[in-house]
Amino acid sequence: MIGKVQASEMHGVVRSVRSKSVVSAKLAVAVAMGLAFTYGAVDVHAQDAATASGTGSTVAQPNTASGQPDATAKKKKDAKELATVTVTGIRASVQSAQDLKQNADQIVDSVTAVDINALPDRSVTETLQRISGVTIDHFISPNDPDHPSAEGSGVSIRGLSQVKSLLNGRDSFSSNSGRALSFEDVPAELMAGVDVYKNPNAELIEGGIGGTVNLRTRMPFDSPGQVVGFSTGVNEGDLSKKSKPSASFLYSNRWKTESLGEFGALLDVSYSELATRTDGIQVEPYSMRTDSAATAGSGFNTVYVPGGADWRTLDFQRRRIGIAAALQWRPTNDLEFSTQFIHSRYDMSWLEHGAIFSDTTGSIDPASGTTFNYNDQGVFQSGALTSSAWSNNLSNGGVRFDTDTRYQTQTTTTNDWSTAFKYNLNDHMMLSGDVQFVKSTSNELDFTVFQATYLPGLDLNVNGSGGMPSVTVNPSSYTSNPANYFWSAAMDHRENEVGMERAARLDLEYDFDDSNWLKYFKVGVRATDRTEDNVSTGYNWGVITDSWASVNTPSTVASVSYYPTNATLYSFSNFFRGSVKIPTPLYFPSASLVENYSSAYSYLHPLGVSWGWSPVQITPADLNNQGEKTKAAYGVLYFGNETALGIPFDGNIGVRLVRTDVDTTGVVQDINLSSTGVSAAEKAIWNGGYTPLSARNHYQDALPSLNLRFKLTDDLQWRIAASKAVTRPDFSQMQSFVQLGYTLNSNNTQVVQWNGLAGNPDLKPMRATQFDTALEWYFAPTGLLYGTAFYKDINNYIAQETKPETYNGQVFDITRPYNIGRGLIRGAEVGYNQFFDFLPGWMKGFGVQANATFVSSTGGVNSATTPYTNAVVTGVALPLVGLSKRSYNFTGMYERGPWSARLAWNWRSRYLLTTSDASTHLPTWSGQYGQLDASVFYKINSNVQVGLQANNLTNATTRVWMGPTSYGNGIVDYREYQRSWFTADRRYELVLRATF
Prior knowledge:
- It comes from Dyella acidisoli.
- Residues 442-953 form the TonB-dependent receptor-like beta-barrel domain.
- The chain is mainly beta.
- It has a single domain (5-18, 25-30, 32-54, 114-995), classed as TonB-dependent receptor, beta-barrel domain (Maltoporin, Chain A, Beta Barrel).
- 6% of the residues lie in helices and 55% in strands.
- The strands form 10 sheets. It has a 22-stranded antiparallel beta barrel. Strands 6-11-12-9-10 form a 5-stranded mixed sheet.
- The relative contact order is 0.11.
């Protein structure tokens, strides 16, 4: 007779399958919690599990089921008789995560919150970066390196941003034309844990060649009875100086009835706000110069001169609201139903004041009577600047700057509702299934108003205090005179995105109760129907007044002194905490003007020319409507043997079959030459308009997987994993649209360049063949040492390319995404956890968590391009975007008596942010970055604790680099120049938590 115990990874719920001697008994424990299916096809079969409650975690080793007629009662009796260890706080969370890793059927790393509302970090994104192999960006968007993010974004696993996101084992997403959740949108307070799967089995929903992240919320049957928990706090940054609140509340209970079985209900709500400030100083791209003005006095024939400098302050605010509600009903021991509803709302806004260098022509020269200073490689170090760009009747001989106030606001809402069941057909077969509906909406407004000025006596030193640039003007009082500024332009951009998905799945499991080799077999089917209906306009820039757009005022422009309303003098107070010198104060459009977009036009239009800026209008080219249907079926066999190989081993082998059908609609947007000086024949052909464009695509994938585990000893196990994975293209890449463009000669009489941008509905998914092997030593309940080696072979890598295409008989150079190239990723992860229980007295409370990841890649398909022309630069190969070669975490922990504390250091090496930055059009890199965070908590009693959490204690500086730079005709400057320096708040939060 062979008994076995299977434990749900997600909740530590033990269910027992008895031998033939008790075949008449129902699978009471199998149905008892019924949550394996709720969290998708991610069951873990193990010898033990941790049952987490709101006040602690009790971990025990259950016996294998015997022939007792009441297995549930037997287990309760065993739990009383066995020795137990009750732990709480950090130690309980470490132990729970370690149990999940040890007992998993595949390679997985977890962070758990045994205590309610107690993930170790205040955002899911920051929590994820503590896991080996996981890194995050510190920018609001990696394609916009001018705007850092205090909480981080852009999760990558082993250097790949193609990460699948699951919520309770089911597919979920944020509607931003992508496929994943924006993890910063999800309230951390709702989470019971976060799991990262590095190499999947066939049960796991497809979609992540980097890996899969599963976010877990709580269910009422997780706890033995009533649980009430709440937390509240207030946070503040040392730069923003704004206090913001946070609060959460959880109620969970379960009830038994005489005739209707057992019921459970849970409600978890959270609310949090955050305000941060980021200061940045930047250097514009360097140009190769051979002219006498630039080289004078240098001794060089060729020098490299920056296009100027910018400085900016960004005030960021966000609000997160989350609701998780769940009901469970177990009418009999063989049947269970559950339903979950999860709502998250993320409101984000930021207000930026930027002094931006306006000369993009590279015509910076030394001021009269001066020369530039260079280093021994001919790279500019310091000098007094002048510029001939924008030289007109407005210029005073200074350098033109835009002082712009930019406001962006975005609201993202995601609603996820699912209903599931689980039914024991007999002693060996279990049927489960669920249906799900997800709807996510996102609305964004981006509005900028520009004023302009000419700053005289401008002096730039790119190696000022602390190695950061410094900027001065002479006279310094010039910047505070409103007569020296005028209203110049405005720009707006709007997005409205709606994504919906309907999904259904059905799974059947058969347990082999009398086999020495076979454990159980699972088969399942899943179908989805997803739609994306998105509106995204271009960036609508329009002039208000300028030298070429004059109005009837004494200065021919709308001077700020002439129109002072809605202009304000802004001081960059405590800029970079006083370590960087810049001109201040300056005049800017007021915050109240840009924050009131609906009425801005009524103020700005009377100031300027009649044909100037007006609010953006939605056109057919701004629409992106797509549909996608998938059908999947899988089969997986779980097996194992205690003696056949001389050591116990187990594993699973399976395959997942998937078909994807895509349907897209859009337009070809023709160019309009009717207002140019080209010939009448060309005007007749190219007079604007739109041509409908639609496409359909489908593809199939077979995704086999194999996971093996060898138990070398009771504490030492060796894993081997192999699988194939896919990541479908983003919806933004598959859009059916072609936007044709052109460039005219200097007198506007002839088109000299025909170009355009387009999506590609024919894209295939990126596909990866991947292998992992891991050695794991569990030497204590909270003691773990492990090492993992991994290999990924990626095909169909998606990247932009420019190719000739013909429209109306004319050849255009069209840039669109293609499946090109192959990439190989190799690497290793090592990790170590331990509480030092062998130390005497109070020192027993010390512990350490540490991990490091090493990644290398070859065969990347990214290439540098010539700025503004998109021509690929030969001889310049770039690595995969987002891949740091090295990253590590080190966390010191202490938990003893009423005290618990944590000091966490996270670091990653430099990596490529984008192959073409939106501002510089150059490859842009994030420099190495490390951040120190900490927390300390004190338990007032067994139910209540207070604490302090702190982020960015070391005042980390985010650095951005740019290059190489191509000048065409094979001329490339291979240097990488430092582009930006950013500093953000040190953040502190006082927290009160209670659980009853």
